[in-house]
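#structure-requests
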Amino acid sequence: MKRIPLFRLVALCCLVSLPLAAANLVIVATDAPGQGLNDPTPATPVGGNTGTTLGAQRLIVFQEAARIWGGLVPSNVTIQVAVSFVPLTCTTTSAVLGRAGATQIFADFPNAPVAGTFYAQSLADKFKGSELGTGPAITGTFNSMLGSTGCFDGIFFYLGLDNNHGEDINLLSVALHEIGHGLGFASYTSQAGSFSGGEPGIFDRFIYDATQAKTWDQMTGTQRATSAVNTGNLMWNGPSANAFGASYLGKRPRLLVTGDAAVSGVYTTGSAQFGPPLQSPNVIGPIAVALSGSATDACSAVTSNLTGQVALVDRGNCTFVLKAKNAQIAGAIGVIIADNTAEPVFAMAGTDPTITIPTVLVSQADGATMRANLPATADLGVDATQVAGADASGRLLLYAPNPYVPASSISHWDTSAVPSLLMEPFIPSDLPLTLDALLPALRDIGWFLGSQTIPTTYVLPSSAHSTGLNGAFYTTDLTITNTGTFDSTFTLKFLGHDQDGTSGAQVTKTLAAGHTVTYTDVLGSLFGVGPAGGYGAIRISADSSALKVVSQTSTPPPSGIGTFGQAVPAQGPNDFVTTAFPRALLGLRQDAAFRTNAVVANATEAAAHVDLKLMSQAGTTFGTMGLDLQPLEMRQISGVVTALGAASGTSDAVLVVSTPTAGAQIATYATVIDQSTNDPRTILGDILGAFAPGVSSTYLLPSSAHGSGANGAFYTTDVTLSNQDTADATVTMKFLGHDQDGSTGAEVVRTVGAGQSVAFSDVLGSLFGVSSDYGAIRFSTDTTSLKVVSQTSTPTPSGIGTFGQSVPALGPADYVTSYTPRSLVGLRQDSSFRTNAVVANATDQPTHVDLTLLSSSGTAFGTMGIDLLPYEMHQVNAVVTALGAPQGTSNAVLVVSSPTAAARVAAYATVIDQQTNDPRTVLP
């Protein structure tokens, strides 16, 4: 075994909850008394951080980061993280926020996956199963001077847990970033190209140079030194991170200049945090030097006429924002700022909502080239053939500026990624709360090797064997599919309601790899709930993150023929309400036609406080409610709309569910119930605010209708839009139809006020004038905070009440891609139920989709290939029998995949009662 003591300092910052794993990260404060994490300075609680001193708040932030990472990476060895606050490098306009890395690295240890390869201490410990070294596996220092005079003046660490940092720096983001380095997202190679200890690190084996067509472990030291500054040609060669990037990143922003040969070409640019991003349609115009008298910096009123032109401005003497604003006032349609220092381009900071033209930064040399070779024309926009932050083959780019930047080069993603990625060397102010490509990269270097399963806790927030209003009697069927390659053992625990659920009854089951099982009337069949009835949450504690868990809760209609019901998926850590992730439940109502019940369930064995806030369409608050939940307690709030102060007759209300309890995990959903039929429709929680990445400004509702269906049904779709942003949102809705190229579909544009909701009843009839049709609807908006949900209904044969389902619009995180197949579970075709499946192309390119239907034992019934036109929606009726399964099949799984490189496909299924036409949504 080889060991090298190492505190690899990599400078500089996000957050997603994924399946719980076995790792236990512990923060070790190494500050002196009264310093850093021990600072006694009084502080006011903020953003879910309940600490009352500066040191306590800092510690809570790092403990939250440790909790998050502990729910992501599997290890039986406790990972200690040493943290201290010390003065780090600063200027008045910049600062090193933090530096962290593995304390030691190890090679050729017991169970090492790759010989002759160094691993970060925490990863090496994971493989060995015990500690290889002593003391903390990760060591980090963070800037104690931030915000003080001479150190990024006036910009401080934000210590809340909700990412509402404003102009300050989110310390939780920085902590997550730096722990990522300590877990192994780092190269241990010197600037001269020498490997630490003479052998590559596992990270180095995934660094690929397109010019030399080699990975770093295949190169000489001299070749690696050259490669380290091969800007734009150094990339990641790991399949997991690259697959993630292909589905996450947007199109590449581009500055194309045309003129004579000396100036023509595509230029590397830095983006601006103000004004619109580079986007389609492109901004095209002649380049003109902006003159303020004889000055070329646009720091005062521009005296040259820039109408219809792209301004060329020199950096220096004033803010980027002021330069752009002065050029805009002079008539410019875009701005190119030329750096005044020889350095890599970077993202320009600043805010000014009145700037409406795009601005980019180019290098000092490129600016000089343009200025010396005018006239020329600038094309500011996107390259539809390229992904931002990846090469043409889809490999994620690594940060390789020339000249080399110590502590930043190589061990970060390139700054060209759109949206910005967590492991870039600089923190943009709009970085969303997501770990994005970091976790897949850790998978590439081995964090999940040797881990057949990742222990995961799911919570089904509600189940029933119980009477309800208006003569209903609800029972719940629970379907579990093991999509993994190993058998899974799981324990189901019935938590009941309005009580401490820790002593609830439990049963343990095993499910073979690839198999599906349904527990009919789960409370009666597994937990012995009798005629007196009962309801409540169910916790599923599994040794695998590969389980897909969905329920169907049904009640017979008064006639006794058929059922009314809804599908409710179990929720995992990615779905829970936490201090950082409040959730919004949209489209709630209480009137003569519908009532709404809301459910909250504590997924932890510690007490938790939950806050409910009901908002009107106009964004005003009807009322609030605080709930103190016992460990594993489920609580239902019946008639939640009126319970929180709204009048009967209220529709399209928004319920915000949040928690101030550190470490809390709350499952939540709402049910909108027809007052006449008791037919329920599931409303799932949507992350509140601008938590989605910038590419999520386009959503696809895969199906809507104004037309007849089987068995006398006539379906209509209502759509609710909720703008959770602080600015008004402009939304373009495009009806794509079905079985056709949707590119030329009709469009309407609407504005949704800040914090407001808008509902469109019978959206196809009222907005698009449809008399009989169905299909997908595309929503394009200028905010990342738009939430979209639909309700599709059909009247009952008696004409009293409705049957229906709720379907949310899907975004990039939900799509089928070439790297991300999706599964639809619990499908059936028999005398009681039929299943229809929908696939919709979310791109303007032809896309091939493959459907594979699997039995409950994992064998394939059949396959179907579908060639989708641009923006085409296609519905496969009776999909179970259409793909070869016999009538009477239940517990089928439909796998939707695509071999098309740029595929983005929305998919879902509907399980429909054959007698009542009552549909239930099955999401991927």
